[in-house]
Amino acid sequence: MVLLYFIAAFAVIVPAVAGPLLAYGPGRRLARGRLAAKTHQAVAGLVVTLGRPMTALVFVLFWAAVIVAVFWPVGILAHRLENVIDWPVLLWVTDRRSPGFEDFNWWYTALGDRDPLKIVVVVAAVLFAPFWRKRFWIPLVAILASFPLEQYVQAILAGMVNRGHPPTGLGSYPSGGIARVVMTFGAIALFIALTWKLRRRWHVLLGTVVLIMATYEGYSRIYTQKHWLTDVISGLLFGPALFLGYALAVGILAGRYPRPVPPPAAAEAEVPVEAAPAAAPVVSATAP
What we know:
By secondary structure, the protein is mostly helical. Helices cover 73% and strands 0% of the residues.
């Protein structure tokens, strides 16, 4: 039982430390790498051709297809590891749960359920809309779209892998609760960063808070035995991966990615300088 408390603390401390390290380390290098440059170039070309709304839609659909292609074989692998990893973990947790801590985890894990997050998404979209004035439709569309995007991509993967669920819960692959926490609160953090000018450290803090929430959501799903361990691990990868594409699509829609290139300054018209009149020759008088 004590070990479960230690793992719970671990589920909070690790993302709290890893979030800033990832943001200032691999995250910064990735943003400056060749792949990011190629993506920037391709998206810029699409924006010129299709416009920002259509480019954002095409990009998010493309990203969703990539996520499905990547996480389908991961799900098959997770299914094959069920007897090796998932069942031993499930039985180990069953023997060590405590009633008081279990009540807390049941309360927390409800954070990732669909019904409460539907309310959060609607309220967030309505609250952000006035701050965007004439472009009020951007937070309305983008924040509301985060929910069905996660739901349908996760449902496609669950149907393709079709691995079932633990006998103690109905959770499927990958953990939708974790992904919903990432997408919903990640969208809120994203629009906080887009709406107000904040320093980079505040962006990192917002992302770290979302990461902590998602990681503990995963722990609570294991503790309450709603998911297999491999479902949770996959959800912790699936949620941020899907959110990355969503965030880029929102940046495209909002005009933040790729950043608009200012038009070249018009060449200053050259003002012709009138030539000064030639001086009259001076004839010196000579004495007769």
